[in-house]
Design brief:
It contains eight helices and 13 strands. A hairpin with a 2-residue loop joins strand 8 and strand 9 (184-188). A nine-stranded mixed β-sheet has the order 5-4-6-7-3-10-11-12-13, sandwiched between helices. A two-stranded antiparallel ribbon has the order 1-2. A two-stranded antiparallel sheet has the order 8-9. It has helices spanning 12-17, 38-48, 73-82, 87-92, 102-112, 131-136, 143-163, 191-197; strands at 6-7, 22-23, 27-32, 61-66, 94-98, 121-127, 167-172, 174-181, 184-188, 200-206, 212-217, 226-232, 235-237. The structure holds adenosine-5'-diphosphate and magnesium ion. Residues 32, 34-40, 231-233 line the site of adenosine-5'-diphosphate.
Length: 238
Amino acid sequence: RKNIEYISTGVKSLDDLLEGGIEVGSLTELIGEFGAGKTQLCHQLSVIVQLPKEKGGLGARALYIDTEGTFRPERIIQIARARGLEPEKALENIIYARAYNSDHQMLLVDEAKKYIEKNNIRLIVVDSLINHFRSEYPGRENLASRQQKLNRHISQLHKLASLYNLAVVVTNQVMAAPDVFFGNPLRPAGGNIMAHGFTYRIWLRKAKEGKRIARIIDSPKHAEKEAAFAISEDGVTD
Ligand code: ADP
Ligand code: MG
């Protein structure tokens, strides 16, 4: 485990859960229902990656691929302020791209190669990874082609993560499961392709009084632990 770099989540309980934070060189999947905090955490990581190492960042930039139109510059400004960064600079250090369909999403990832190094990008966010794929390939009859394409997309991301030594963080929805998955009647979308595609899978859920709970699932190195966090004006917090 020597020489592995991490991006702090900015939340002590989550960093402890992840034994350091979001691992560079790997793919991390944030799973959860609507409102669980996936997009908030993506915003926060896009700010924290910019901080110097001693403050949990990598002194680097983020590429934010938004497939749902939920990126909010004003939220970046709030989080940056809370972390002592100059808000406008923090916003400039996030390269934003809206993906309009799954082909476009894959093209954006492909094109990223041309400017990752030049722009010192060490974090790629895809929020969410799967929604275009699900809506463009509905039903059982399209499942095989959807999964094949999704697999290609995940491979693209793996290549960038290892080639450029950067962290990839994607979000994924949950859907109703016919059986019970980890004690939950919901399961992450995308089936085995997603389950095997990501090194780390973090399930976020809402709890009482606005609290949130994160749980690591399917991890090769982490116990199935949980951690509590909150979301405030300042971003994601303990
Ligand atoms: P999703 O998992 O669907 O991406 P989000 O990350 O968008 O969920 O989380 C949305 C939730 O984050 C809101 O329901 C709200 O509880 C919380 N939130 C967003 N902005 C703020 C804020 N400025 N202050 C407090 N809570 C916020
Ligand atoms: Mg979201």
